[in-house]
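Supplementary notes for students who missed Thursday's class. We covered one full example, reproduced here. Read the sequence, then the structure, then the short commentary at the end.
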Amino acid sequence: MREVDFNTINHSKAITSDFLGDDPDSCYSQFLFDTLRTAVLYLDKWGRIRSANDMAKKLFDDQYLTGKTALEVFGNWDKPIQSYQEILQVARTGHSVTGLNEKIYIDGVECWFQTDKIAVENASHGFRGVVYTLDDISQLTQQKQSLSKSEANYRAFIENSDDTIWRVEFPSMISLNQKPEILVKLIRQQAVFGDCNDLFNKIYEIDDNQSLQGIQLQDITFQDKLLNIEEFVSNKLRLCDKAVEFELSNDEYKYLKTSVQGIVTDEALVGIWGVTRDITELRWYTDRLEYQATHDVLTGLPNRIQLQSLVEQSIVNCQKDKKVALMIIDLDSFKEINDTLGHDIGDYIIQEIGPRIKQQLLGASSVIARLGGDEFAILLVDINHQSQAEIVGKQVLNGIRKYFHIGNIDVEIRASMGISIYPDQASDFSTLLRYADVAMYCAKKDMIGLEVYDSERDAHSPKRLSLISELGKAIRNNDLTLYFQPKVSVCNQNIVGVEALARWTHPVMGFISPAEFVPIAEMTDLINDMTDWVLDESLRQVKVWRRKSLDIKIAVNISARNLLQENFCEHVECLLADHDLPASCLGLEITESTIMKNTEQTLLTLHKLNEVGVELSIDDFGTGYSLLAYLKRLPVKWLKIDYSFIINMLQDEQDQIIVNSTINMAHNLGLQVIAEGVENKKIMQCLGDMYCEQAQGFHIARPMPAFDFEKWYLGRYSD
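Structure (token representation):
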């Protein structure tokens, strides 16, 4: 309640004079009185209403207020007796009371009014009274209450937030219609730290007794961790999840993530709100998960995922005159260690491999990784030549070979290594890894320890994949050609038959060697299609020659896949029948290694073919390892000695002994012998001295098309 001495307020008399005039009931005064938007009551010193304007009558919903006491009409007042007593007090003392807020219930609805109780004195009438004014402030009061409640809720939200919330203020608005560098300068000069919640002090390790409020932002020591002004301006007055490291007093770090939003009004920056979250625990957890995802659990070495990332990064950073090597290491016979000594010992050895490799890589820019099981990888960067990788590889293999002392047992571990080189052989991680893996298996197969990738030994190279597709088309489109190499009797030089050899001239790639496309066919089911084509075409050609009175036997090479093919023998019989030829005109040549695959099934098929009447030969004899144990069980008629023994038999005594022994062994088993690779007359004479039955080779004739063979055949006998 605020008291005012009426005698000191001159304008109150003026108001009273205008209100009452010399005649309170005058029409003019009443008109002015009624036009006021403020409810006005004029009460005498006993609290009776002497006059009321229209707004008052409307407010109290009573057209007959005059003569009633204030207590009668204040029934809806929050405190009616207190208000009545205040009126009497003002009338008695002459001290006005203004600026009060009073609550009234109108139709059950809470309403608020600002009231003034102004003491007046009318000397001509000889009494004192009170002018009581009421201004409706219900809407304003509700807004203030709502705002107050909103601010309380807002403050509660901020204080209870899991995030740090803070605010930056500006003494004056900063216009945005200027160059970014000027805007940065103005923000830096004027920005003042405004407010924050309690969590702010905890995150930034600020003493509770210390307050940053009102301090220039540029004077806060960790201002750059709070708000990067240049980045804030360049990003259109906002930053989203900006991650920063915050160094603590104990030399440790917190990891924070901040989002900032500028508050803009009328093209001017008026403030900045920021939200900072402590992500230290999340960062630690994420780093732990990332480590687990990119490292091997047993050894702690990078795994394949991390290796891929490092290789790709090395490729990007590789200088023009440098190379990157990827080396794959696989321990030999490691399964035997696990099975013999147990998996605990196996795990111990795996854990020791990394340090052993590391000792051999001192001074080299390298990374060691474990790919799984007993397979490791080495990334070697910044090398000048492939030979550097080979030297390092040999050192690593020697380091691995050192004994592991396990109890009373000394265990020696050997390993095989494959190497691929960027950019010489591949340009991406996946290809480098595959090439190194191929080279490693070649090294393991050849038992040579280390091998650099060679596309010629890659059974699954892109070129071979393309050749598989093209070979299939060539077989289907009849684009292959048969060449024929004659066989002669060693004793009289008579022609005894030919060997059918497939040739392939690609329309784009040109001539493709059988040494290249036949192994590809043998890796897939294409070998069955190709053998079918060769058999059919060979028998067709024999039929043509027979019509020309050329009685020639033909030999066709078949593979292990053919012998394992269901109903292969029946298929051969059908082809013979289709061409109306006897089985005796066809010979099948099977390599020694082919017979050793799935021996029982192979033997069963060979016996069926023999019963049909097809002559069987063992091709490339001498290149296998275990055939002698099965030789007596095979229904074969011929042994074909591999050319590698024949071609050098005159210069190499050992080869000559092997050839002679093979011929004698074959004869003792009731077999006949064919020698391939006869390059000159002296070899032919030597074979005759050893009683070899047949021969073929360049000394006799090279492989040739059917037409050329006919000319050669007729010319030979016409002489």
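Commentary. Residues 161-282 form a domain with the Beta-Lactamase fold (CATH 3.30.450.20). The CA atoms of residues 227 and 260 lie 8 Å apart. If anything here is unclear, bring it to office hours.
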